[in-house]
Write a structure and sequence with these properties.
alpha/beta, 53% helix, four-stranded parallel beta sheet, 4 strands, 8 helices
């Protein structure tokens, strides 16, 4: 089975599942890994290894222990795996062409399975963050901040959003990308509450576009 986002298939071989689980809760981590295993099973890919990292967005692939192990498995004299399945190739390399070259040179099939996210669970977090009163319970604040960062990270990894040529999506994705890379914590002289509001709006923009585009796709597929 050839996935639409596979890079230069190299034939049959065992697979390694890879995921960066930064920002995700324990439950979300289990759900993401379960989704990767389900994808591999559906695609009839024999899974030999499952590797994970917990690194902030923007951390180069070479600085991630889990990803370094992936490259070692693929680049071994007698490769132990021929296929890498991950939720998204977003932020594995600053230049996606670099990943393409690596896959071509090693004969590796690199497959995006898609981030595991239910965007309808994102909107209550956004609403709660925008209506939060200062002062508030610190635990509630941290839970909302971390939940929004996790959802924004997964949304930025969705292929049709980051590859879109529509200006409104490009602007929303670019804002989200900058938020994760440059503004994941409050800036100097910016309050934690102001930062949370900015994070909520960035997440809301991308989540709305994702929901709208998914609805468009569903309508198109249902049309006679």
């Amino acid at each position: 089975m050839k996935h639409p986002h596979a890079i230069e298939p190299s034939g049959p071989g065992q697979a390694v599942l890879y995921c960066n689980l930064h920002y995700l809760t324990a439950e979300e981590r289990r759900a993401q890994m379960a989704a990767l295993h389900a994808f591999a099973e559906t695609a009839s890919l024999p899974v030999r290894f499952s590797l994970m990292d917990d690194c902030p967005p923007g951390t180069a692939g070479g600085s991630r222990p889990g990803w370094r192990r992936v490259t070692e498995l693929v680049q071994a004299p007698q490769p132990l795996v021929r296929t890498v399945v991950c939720p998204s190739t977003y932020d594995l390399a600053d230049d996606e062409a670099e990943l393409t070259r690596w896959a071509e040179e090693t004969g590796c099939t690199l497959i995006e399975a898609g981030p595991a996210i239910n965007v309808e669970d994102t909107f209550p977090k956004i609403k709660a963050a925008l209506h939060l009163q200062d002062p508030c319970d610190p635990h509630t604040f941290r839970a909302l901040r971390d939940g929004l960062l996790a959802d924004l990270y997964r949304l930025t990894g969705i292929r049709f959003l980051r590859d879109s040529d529509e200006e409104i999506i490009q602007e929303a994705w670019g804002r989200a990308h900058r938020m994760l890379r440059e503004h994941a914590t409050p800036r100097l002289n910016e309050s934690a509450f102001d930062h949370l509001v900015d994070l909520a709006w960035s997440t809301r923009c991308l989540a709305c576009l994702y929901r709208y585009r998914n609805a468009d796709t569903a309508r198109s597929e249902a049309a006679p």
